UniProtKB/TrEMBL annotation:
Pfam assignment, any one: ABC_tran
Stated name of the protein: ABC transporter ATP-binding protein
InterPro entries: AAA+_ATPase, ABC_transporter-like_ATP-bd, ABC_transporter-like_CS, P-loop_NTPase
PROSITE patterns attached to this UniProt entry: ABC_TRANSPORTER_1, ABC_TRANSPORTER_2
Record-annotated ABC transporter domain positions: 3-231
Keyword Nucleotide-binding: yes
Record family assignment: Belongs to the ABC transporter superfamily.
SUPFAM superfamilies membership: P-loop containing nucleoside triphosphate hydrolases (SSF52540)
GO MF annotation terms: ATP binding; ATP hydrolysis activity
Xref: PANTHER family: ABC TRANSPORTER, ATP-BINDING PROTEIN
Alphabetical UniProt keywords: ATP-binding, Nucleotide-binding, Transport
Top-level taxonomy: Bacteria, Bacillati, Bacillota, Clostridia, Lachnospirales
Length: 289
């Protein structure tokens, strides 16, 4: 399956939320990374058909999704950043309700719910009221409801925001089980989520595609731009003003800084291995003068 986003633009007044955005996606998990206001939500809402682009088209296997109509929308599953639940429903009642909304055949509902609640480790909580769920349980129920119609395109908007590390890892593991014959778009600010599970990363800024590639490709491209330096307090403060800083570690002598910079930031700086945080800083961090 191929989802192709062709030269999408969306304006609010004179400001572009998306500008000539083009990307092609196949089965697998894609991380959508960008700073605040980059256009991630606008892109997601355009793919979901919640908002209409001013220019460009979205095609599924070569067919304009607007012409595919409900057939396309039945293939899409969505977990919003803040999913809303009817708090008085039990977990199972909520899932039954979602199955009905998504036209899951009656004869399949029970099995589908058992299968999905098992996938998200909520089988022991089926009779519990959703209003009494923890944040992590709510997000796991959120992914289960997004999967009721077995979507071929699954969009997750900031799914791990607010979760503790244990729940975040649990959630990540659930998502990584979903990649078969499905396009998963995971929009997030949490770089490590993407680093662990995405086959490719889509980097967006000011409504445009900045870069798309595997973790290996993206980190290799900035391999000569990531530095480490051990320095005293005064120099460290100066460097922190001037450069994008990936990491600061206090040492007995002062500080050890990881710096992302086109040029060597100071004498004594040496190259170190780049990670996705560094890629993020390279494209979206401080502009060097
Ligand atoms: N309904 C709207 N009316 C006016 N401007 C909007 C509207 N929605 C988005 N924008 C603007 O479009 C740009 C992209 O916004 P968008 O919400 O898509 O970014 P984002 O990457 O999702 O940001 P965040 O990470 O903060 O959620 C921003 O400049 C935003 O202010």
């Amino acid at each position: 399956m191929e989802l192709r986003i062709n030269n999408i633009s969306k304006r609010y007044g004179k400001q572009y939320a998306l500008k000539d955005f083009t990307v092609s996606l196949n089965d697998g998990i894609y991380g959508l990374l960008g700073p605040n206001g980059a256009g991630k939500t606008t892109l997601i809402n355009t793919i979901l058909g919640i908002i209409k682009q001013d220019e460009g088209s979205i095609e599924l296997d070569g067919k304009d999704v607007r012409k595919l109509g409900s057939h396309y929308y039945n293939l899409v599953g969505y977990l919003p950043q803040y999913p809303q639940f009817y708090k008085n429903f039990t977990c199972r009642e909520f899932m039954e309700y979602m199955c009905t909304l998504k036209d899951v055949p009656k004869s399949q509902i029970s099995n589908r719910i058992n299968e999905l609640l098992d996938l998200v480790n909520l089988s022991d909580s089926t009779a519990k009221r959703v209003g009494a769920f923890s944040g992590g349980m709510r997000q796991r129920l959120g992914i289960a409801q997004a999967l009721v119609n077995d979507p071929k395109i699954l969009i997750l908007d900031e799914p791990t925001a607010g979760l503790d590390p244990k729940e975040r890892i649990r959630f990540r593991n659930i998502i990584s089980k979903l990649l078969k014959e499905r396009i998963v778009i995971l929009s997030t600010h949490i770089v490590s989520d993407v680093e662990y599970i995405a086959k490719e990363v889509i980097m967006i800024d000011r409504g445009s595609l900045v870069k798309k590639g595997t973790l290996k490709e993206l980190t290799e491209q900035i391999a000569d731009k990531v530095w480490e330096i051990h320095t005293d307090d005064t120099t460290a403060n100066l460097l922190m003003e001037l450069y994008s800083i990936g990491n600061v570690l206090a040492t007995e002598q002062g500080y050890c800084l990881k710096i992302v910079s086109e040029k060597c930031p100071a004498s004594g700086a040496v190259h170190v291995v780049a990670n996705l945080d560094d890629v993020f800083l390279h494209y979206f961090g401080k502009e060097e003068t």
